[in-house]
Specification:
This protein is mainly α. 72% of the residues lie in helices and 3% in strands. It has one domain: CDP-alcohol phosphotransferase transmembrane (TM) domain (Four Helix Bundle (Hemerythrin (Met), subunit A)), CATH 1.20.120. Strands 1-2 form a two-stranded antiparallel sheet.
């Protein structure tokens, strides 16, 4: 086996390491840094498959490693972030947040076996869920001014668990061509996301709090879910 066969697996290991560091950062209440490591893990997750296809290599070990790395980075890490974020506010009730790690594992196992998910997703993808929660928890505790907000977040984590394993179709950002007709929903999402990220960056500069820029991740995932719902409810020609 040549060295090129190990390159995709090495990139997958980088994804897993990013997830491990994100978990550690969560235990230190460094939620913004945990989010950044999840984003870095997502970059490695994108490039491991891309590299494997570019090099023309594939092996069952890589598939298993990819799922394990994804469950650490996009399952355990966001669950730990939410748990550590909520524990000072609602105590051990925050353990419920760890259910996201289990449902993320179920979602990844389902994805590996489901032949319908080649061009789109059935259920919310784990990276999207992870980015939402890690981004949201990057904001200071000041956003929890209402006493009931921690319970709302805990309830939303259960909604996330449902979305991860649901049969709801979600569009992916895979492009087979660059035409507007075949990719209009993806272009609308990307354009809207650029606007939202730009707005959050401007707010971060204005208030001199860089966490506002990180909050754009959660807003973009909400935009993604809303746009997906509109797309599903729109009459098909």
């Amino acid at each position: 086996m040549t060295i090129k066969n190990h390159i995709p697996n090495a990139i997958t290991c980088c994804n897993l390491l990013c997830g491990g560091v994100a978990v550690f950062m969560a235990t230190q209440n460094a939620f913004a840094y945990a989010f950044l490591y999840i984003l870095l893990g997502a970059v490695f997750d994108f490039f491991d498959g891309l590299t494997a296809r570019a090099l023309g290599v594939s092996n069952p070990k890589g598939v298993e490693m990819d799922s394990l790395a994804d469950d650490i980075t996009f399952g355990l890490a966001p669950a730990m972030i939410l748990f550590c974020y909520l524990r000072p506010l609602i105590g051990w009730w925050s353990l419920i947040a760890l259910l996201m790690a289990a449902f993320s594992a179920l979602r990844l196992a389902k994805f590996n076996l489901d032949t319908r998910q080649t061009d789109s997703f059935i259920g919310l993808a784990t990276p999207s869920n992870a980015i939402f929660w890690a981004s949201l928890c990057s904001m200071p505790y000041a956003i929890l001014a209402w006493d009931g907000m921690p319970w709302v977040l805990l309830g939303l984590s259960l909604v996330s668990c449902y979305l991860l394993v649901s049969e709801i179709p979600f569009f992916s950002l895979k492009f087979h061509d660059l035409s507007w007709k075949n990719n209009y929903i993806k272009y609308i999402f990307l354009i809207g996301s650029l606007v939202l990220v730009g707005f959050c960056i401007m707010r971060a500069i204005q208030y001199e709090h860089w966490e506002f820029a990180l909050f754009s991740g959660a807003i973009c995932i909400v935009w993604y879910i809303i746009l997906n719902c509109v797309n599903l409810l729109s009459p098909k020609k």
